[in-house]
Model the fold of this input.
Amino acid sequence: MRELSYCENPFVYRRRKTREVKVGNVGVGGNNPIRVQSMITCDTMDTDASIQQTIELANVGCEIVRITAPDRERFAQS
Done:
């Protein structure tokens, strides 16, 4: 088995020391637990679908939901 320079042992879990950052009120990194996060997959111009997917993710335990939206220039080109 070859050496993994980024992992002492692939069968033993160990977190690296990191700095805490806040995503809203949720602490990420540092001594915080690992956070469950995801990203919606619907067309973000569809507000109702975006809200529905966000609620569904929150209901199954997602703590951070990432949403991207096109800027006006990029949206106008499509």
Remarks:
- Strands lie at 21-23, 26-28, 37-39, 64-66.
- The chain has a mean pLDDT of 87.
- The two ends are 49 Å apart (CA to CA).
